[in-house]
Write a structure and sequence with these properties.
The chain has about 350 residues and is α/β, with parallel strands linked by helices. It has 10 helices and 15 strands. Strand 7 and strand 8 form a beta hairpin.
Length: about 350
């Protein structure tokens, strides 16, 4: 396996690269991003890069710019380790969330009105997304549900990691609770600190594959990365004894090359797990409820007071928990609001680009 294949290069990227070969542009993978500067990995070398002026002029949305895990094409500056990025190659997939709204006004009910509605691409070209939760005070089923929706929307394979089994007396109970919401998703119960069941990760850590660790602060993402690397590469901080919550250990997204031939993307703790995607993604993350909903009398049933609602009947029969049903309704409502805001934003961008062309 050559250096490019170790980084995840495959026939998908090779096919798209044909469009750039004649322009004498070379492919590299984005390792880190700091402001307007990027670090690229190309054939065993690390290069510092910036996007070309023409690229910046045409990239009018944040998602158009390179992110960690992207394959880009570049031209090297002669006799230096610096490069100019000319394009981002098509992404096989990417993990995105709704960009925390800026320029808006928070209302008394907590809803932010105004501002922009845009997607934030966290990382790209991922094979497995590990959703990490701690079996301590951090454990939150509803947060795991939201991560599952986002991972399914990304197009990568979700796997739930329940870390810190050494701090939990009833691990099997937690596994069963997660199994009720993570349908057909592998659940790995581990303790990285005590090196318990770490081998369970091995099937996903294969040469040429890229994995990402997702979760809130303090769940052990950086600790797992350090254990896999066999060194304290990612900074670690202790859990606050006052709150029981972890402080941020990773401050930026980084792609790390493992000596055995796979790559790891470590991410900061995400304080806000804002959904991005289409409502249809819930057919995967809430497959249990969606299958029941297909039996409702009305196609547009809100699962509230409508007659012949199969979902409401399932809740009354205790086939679905109230918390699970409420979470499902909240995610539907959030994605529907998002859809309307995306349409508004698209109209705004369309007007802006039309004005730009006529200047």
């Amino acid at each position: 396996m050559n250096a490019q294949q170790v980084m995840g290069w495959n026939t998908f990227f090779e096919q798209h690269y044909q469009n750039y070969k004649g322009k004498r542009l070379l492919p590299a993978r984005v390792i880190t991003k700091h402001g307007h500067s990027y670090q690229l990995y190309f054939e065993g070398q690390f290069l510092t890069a910036k996007v070309a002026g023409k690229f910046r002029y045409h990239a009018y949305l944040k998602k158009h710019f390179p992110v960690v895990g992207d394959w880009v094409v570049f031209r090297r500056i002669e006799n230096s380790n610096e490069a100019i990025i000319h394009a981002v190659m098509p992404r096989k997939n990417c993990f995105v969330r709704k960009l925390p709204i800026s320029g808006g006004r928070r209302m008394s009910n907590g809803i932010i009105e105004g501002g922009t509605t845009e997607e934030q691409v966290i990382a790209a070209n991922i094979d497995t997304s590990f959703i990490v939760s701690g079996l301590d005070q951090d454990f939150d089923l509803r947060r795991i549900e939201r991560f599952i929706t986002l991972v399914y929307n990304s197009g990568s394979q979700p796997v739930v990691i329940l870390n810190k089994t050494d701090l939990c007396d009833n691990v099997s109970d937690f596994v069963n609770r997660v199994r009720d919401i993570a349908i057909n998703i592998p659940i790995l119960a581990i303790s990285v600190e005590k090196n318990i069941n770490m081998d369970a990760l091995c099937p996903y850590l294969q040469p040429g594959k890229t994995v990402v660790f997702l979760g809130s602060s303090g769940v052990g993402k950086s600790t797992i990365t350090n254990a896999l690397l066999g060194e304290a590469k990612q900074k670690k901080q202790t859990i606050s004894t006052a709150t029981g919550k972890g402080r941020h250990t990773t401050t930026s997204v980084e792609l790390i090359i493992h000596p055995t031939g796979y790559t790891i993307i470590d991410t900061p703790g995400l304080r806000e797990v804002q959904l991005w995607g289409e409502e249809k993604v819930l057919e995967q993350s809430f497959n249990d409820i969606k299958e029941i909903a297909n039996r409702c009398r009305y196609q547009d049933c809100r699962h509230d007071k409508e007659p012949g609602c199969a979902v409401k009947q399932a809740f009354q029969n205790e086939w679905i928990s109230g918390e699970r049903l409420e979470s499902y309704k909240k995610q539907i409502a959030e994605l529907q609001r998002l859809d309307e805001k995306k349409k508004q934003f698209e109209r705004y961008i369309s007007r802006k680009m039309k004005h730009k062309r006529h200047k």
